[in-house]
Backbone:
């Protein structure tokens, strides 16, 4: 039997901001097709890890490989071109632009025609533009059930729908690896269920078939969706395994209990 194919490899990365160590010798390997979750208390380094993977942060030590190729020094836009997309903990959308325009921006790397092409090969540029528009409207917005909102200004939408537009923007890249930073945060129960359904579909349906790295605080969602889970605490990986093992792991329980005790102490 062939060993499972590794799409993303994080090797021994170290990241510090002045004296604050955000990631301390973190390693992990994500398999192609997997839904891999990263959990941990506040400030554990989860967002920093996603930032290192998509190129917003550059670790001081260690390596990152995507599809076997080292990407440690590549800037974020080049990693996007290779097929790494992400959503943000606090959506990073253009709030005064329409849903459609935001999602189109997520697709710009696929739009080959520039202005000059547009002038010389007018027909081709127009055909290409129409194809992109059809893809965005008929595939992505339909799938995420936000077609009817395509001309709405993003900043005017309820937060739950803005999170969905952020997902649409990431999906417009047609990524092979999708990094999701707390996609459920701030959503109500029904919105969480919808979001979970979309993520599952993006991961499992061969139409998308996207490998996902999910950072999430909602334990129910993590345990339901994930194939494997890694746990960060104070910048270090303290556990990794299938969800049912992680739930029972005394080291993990202690890390979370520590957080609850700390919260309790500050409440008193
Ligand atoms: N740009 C930055 N400058 C300085 N310190 C940073 C920066 N980004 C992250 N940190 C620090 O790194 C540590 C890890 O932060 P990070 O945002 O990665 O945690 P997190 O696990 O995503 O937390 P949360 O669950 O609250 O989102 C924290 O101590 C944070 O203050
Ligand atoms: Mg975070």
Residues:
């Amino acid at each position: 039997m062939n060993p499972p194919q590794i799409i993303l490899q994080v090797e021994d990365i170290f990241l510090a901001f002045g004296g604050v160590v955000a990631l301390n010798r973190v390693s992990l390997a994500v398999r192609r097709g997997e839904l891999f979750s990263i959990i941990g208390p506040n400030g554990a380094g989860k967002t920093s890890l996603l930032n290192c993977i998509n190129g917003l942060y550059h670790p001081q030590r260690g390596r990152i490989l995507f599809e076997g190729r080292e990407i440690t020094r590549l800037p974020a836009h080049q990693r996007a071109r290779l097929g790494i997309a992400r959503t943000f903990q606090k959506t990073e959308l253009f709030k005064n632009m329409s849903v459609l325009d935001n999602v189109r921006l997520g697709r710009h790397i696929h739009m080959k025609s520039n202005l000059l092409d547009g002038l010389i090969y007018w027909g081709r540029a127009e055909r290409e533009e129409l194809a992109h528009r059809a893809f965005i409207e008929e595939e992505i917005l339909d799938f995420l059930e936000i077609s009817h909102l395509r001309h709405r200004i993003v900043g005017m939408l309820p937060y739950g729908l803005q999170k969905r537009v952020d997902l649409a923007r990431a999906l417009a890249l047609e990524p092979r690896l999708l990094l999701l930073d707390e996609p459920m945060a701030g959503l109500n129960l029904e919105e969480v269920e919808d979001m979970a359904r979309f993520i599952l579909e993006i991961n499992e349906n061969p139409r998308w078939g996207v490998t996902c790295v999910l950072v999430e605080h909602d334990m129910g969602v993590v345990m339901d969706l994930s194939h494997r889970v890694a746990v960060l605490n104070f910048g270090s990986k303290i556990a990794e395994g299938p969800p049912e093992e992680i739930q029972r792991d005394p080291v993990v329980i202690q890390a979370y209990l520590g957080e609850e005790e700390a919260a309790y102490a500050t409440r008193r």
In short: Residues 1-83+176-268 form a domain with the Rossmann fold fold (CATH 3.40.50.300). The chain has ten helices and ten strands. The first strand starts at residue 6 and ends at 17.
